[in-house]
Every structure is written in C-alpha cells, then in structure tokens.
Amino acid sequence: MSDKSVKSVSLAQFQKLQQKFETLAAKMSKYEKDISSMKDMKEKFEEMSRWHSSLSNDDGDEKQLWYSWHWRILLFLGGAFCCSF
C-alpha cells in the first residue's frame, strides 16, 4: 500500500464525522424499531383477517352473523339470570 491511500484528517473533522455516524446509527435504530412494530401490526391484522373470514357465513352475510352471536349471548345471559333464582 502506498501512502497516497491514507488520508489524514484533523481531530475536529474526525469528531464531526463520528457525530454524524452516531446520529445515523440512532436514526437507523429508530427505523428498525418502527419496521419491527409495523411487522407486528401486519401479523395481527392478518390474524384478525383470518379469524374474521373463519367466522363469515357461506352467504357472506355479516349482519346475520352479528345477530346470531348477539342472540346467543343474550340467551346465555338470560338463562344464567333465570337459573340464579
């Protein structure tokens, strides 16, 4: 290696470059956390989507599904209330 490939820098220039590097490293860490949280949200959304599609009727009538679960809950609570006396 020749001496031409080595470049000398002052201490102030080195510290300035080091500060820029640390700033970029901090930003990169923040972006990695953001990407990780976005991946988690995507997985949760996909899980909810699978759950919702497994609950849908063959007709695709979500309103009917809501009423069926609604009445099941009301009947269960009504039965529990009647049995408590």
Q: Note the main sheet.
A: none
Unreliable spans are: none
Percent of residues in helical segments? over 70%
What is the ordering of alpha helices and beta strands? HH
Question: What number is the mean pLDDT?
Answer: 78
> Which class of secondary structure composition applies to the elements?
mainly alpha
Distance between the termini: 94 Å
Q: Over the alpha carbons, how many angstroms does the gyration radius reach?
A: 31 Å
Number of strands: 0
DSSP summary: helix tally: 2
The number of domains is 1
**Proportion of beta-strand residues:** under 5%
The gross shape turns out to be rod-shaped
Give a description of the structure.
- With 85 residues, the chain is mostly helical.
- It has one domain.
- It is 79% helix and 0% strand.
- The mean pLDDT is 78.
Task: Give structural attributes.
85 residues; mainly alpha; rod-shaped; coiled coil
How are the secondary structure elements laid out?
Blueprint: H1 11-55, H2 62-83
Task: Give a short overview.
The protein is mainly alpha-helical. The chain is built from 2 helices and no strands. The mean pLDDT is 78.
